[in-house]
Design brief:
The chain is mostly beta strands. The strands form four sheets. Strands 3, 5, 6, 8, 13, 14, 15 and 18 form an eight-stranded antiparallel beta sheet that branches. Strands 4, 7, 9, 10, 11, 12, 16 and 17 form an eight-stranded antiparallel beta sheet that branches. It is globular, with a radius of gyration of 22 Å. The N and C termini lie close together (11 Å).
C-alpha cells in the first residue's frame, strides 16, 4: 500500500509540474514570414508587449546608406572620425537579403544604441536577442560586443553588464554598485569568435530586488552551422540593482576593437529587445526545446494567458521546411514543440490533448 501511495505521489507531482508549463492547444493562420498566426492554450501568462523588433526595418533599408536615428535608436552621430557609422548591407544576411554592417577595418568603434524608455523594474526581467557575423578579422585581441547600461554611456559605470573577449578569455562582467570590488566576473566559453558564420546571442537579466543578491543573468549562444545544442551560461544569486534610479535601460552594441585586433567587420541582424519579462514565442529545429540547435524569435502582437497572436519571422528557415513552435513563460519554461510548415497557407490545427482519468494499478 505504501509503495502505491509513493508512486501515486510522484505521478501527481509530475502532473502538477506539467500543468505549470505553457501548453499549446490550437494553431491558426499563416506561417509565412510577415503574416500573422494565432495560438491558443493555457499558462501563457501575461506580457505588456514592450518590444522592439529590428528585423523588418533592416530588410527595408537602402543598401549602402547610413542608419539614421529613429524612435529610441541612436547611431548616426559619431563623436569623431575614428568611429564607424552602421550601414545597411547586402554583404551578409542571416534572414532576407540585408543586415547592419559596422566596418572596423580603419575604425575602432561603431556603436548602436537603444533606449528602452525606462529602467527595468526590480524583480522583473529583460530579454535581448540578435544574430552576429564576423568577417575580415586581422589580429588577435579585444572585441567588446555588447553592454547594457543605466544611461547612454559606453564608459564603465554602474549598473552595467559587459560582454567582451580578451585573447580568447571571454569575459562577462556585471557591476551593480559604484565600487570596482562589486564587479561579478565570469569567464564563459560561448562567445562568437569564429569568422564566417552566423551566431545568435541571447541575454536574460532577472533584475534583483534593491540591494539583494537574488538576481540572475543568463547568456545563450546559438551556433546552428555546428549543429550543436544551444549553449547556456548562467550567473545566479547576484545583485543587479544597487541603488536609486540606476537600473538597466540602455542596450548598446559597442563594437569596439583594439589591443591586438587591427581590423574587423561586424554584421548584425534580427535584433529583438523586450523589457518586463522573458516570455516569448519561438520556432526551432527540434520538437524538444533543449535539443534545438537553432531557434528564431517571433514577434507577438497580442498576448493573454490563453491566446497569443504574432507576426511570423521565419528567419533562416525556408518555405516547406518543418519547424517547431514553442511558447516560453516568464520563468523560462518552454511548452512542448508543435510542428509547423514554413510558408504554409491559412489553416487551423488542434493539438491532441493528453488522456485523462488514468488509473494506476
Amino acid at each position: 500500500m505504501m509503495l502505491i501511495r509513493v508512486i501515486f505521489f510522484l505521478v501527481f507531482l509530475a502532473w502538477t509540474n506539467a500543468l505549470a508549463e505553457p501548453a499549446i492547444d490550437n494553431m491558426s493562420g499563416s506561417f509565412t514570414s510577415g503574416d500573422t498566426a494565432t495560438i491558443t492554450g493555457s499558462q501563457f501568462g501575461s506580457h505588456d508587449l514592450n518590444i522592439e523588433w529590428r528585423g523588418n526595418e533592416i530588410e527595408a533599408g537602402q543598401a549602402g546608406t547610413i542608419l539614421t536615428s529613429q524612435g529610441r535608436w541612436y547611431y548616426e552621430k559619431q563623436p569623431n572620425s575614428s568611429w564607424a557609422a552602421p550601414v545597411y548591407s547586402t554583404a551578409h544576411a542571416h534572414s532576407g537579403k540585408q543586415s547592419l554592417e559596422v566596418d572596423l577595418t580603419s575604425k575602432w568603434q561603431g556603436a548602436l544604441r537603444y533606449d528602452s524608455g525606462t529602467g527595468v523594474a526590480p524583480d522583473s526581467s529583460l530579454f535581448v536577442s540578435w544574430w552576429v557575423y564576423l568577417s575580415d578579422m586581422v589580429g588577435d585581441g579585444q572585441w567588446k560586443m555588447f553592454r547594457i547600461n543605466w544611461q547612454n554611456d559606453i564608459q564603465d559605470d554602474y549598473p552595467q553588464m559587459v560582454m567582451f573577449n580578451w585573447y580568447n578569455a571571454n569575459q562577462l562582467i556585471v557591476r551593480p554598485g559604484p565600487e570596482i570590488s562589486s564587479n561579478t566576473k565570469y569567464v564563459y566559453p560561448s562567445y562568437p569568435d569564429v569568422s564566417g558564420k552566423w551566431y545568435r546571442m541571447d541575454v536574460i537579466i532577472k533584475e534583483s530586488s534593491l540591494g539583494r543578491d537574488n538576481g540572475s543573468l543568463s547568456t545563450f549562444t546559438h551556433d546552428p552551422e555546428s549543429r550543436m545544442a544551444v549553449k547556456r551560461s548562467t550567473l545566479s544569486n547576484i545583485m543587479t540593482y544597487h541603488s536609486g534610479d540606476r537600473r538597466h535601460r540602455w542596450f548598446l552594441w559597442q563594437n569596439y576593437v583594439g589591443n591586438g585586433i587591427n581590423s574587423l567587420k561586424v554584421f548584425l541582424d534580427d535584433i529583438y529587445i523586450q523589457t518586463g519579462t522573458q516570455a516569448r514565442v519561438e520556432i526551432g529545429d527540434d520538437d524538444n526545446w533543449a535539443d534545438c540547435t537553432w531557434r528564431e524569435i517571433q514577434v507577438p502582437t497580442s498576448w493573454t494567458d490563453n491566446s497569443i497572436s504574432f507576426q511570423v519571422n521565419s528567419g533562416a528557415f525556408t518555405d516547406g521546411q518543418t519547424a517547431y513552435l514553442f511558447v516560453v513563460d516568464s520563468d523560462g519554461n518552454p511548452s512542448a514543440g508543435q510542428p509547423i510548415t514554413i510558408g504554409s497557407g491559412s489553416r487551423s490545427t488542434t493539438v491532441p490533448t493528453p488522456p485523462t482519468n488514468l488509473k494506476i494499478q
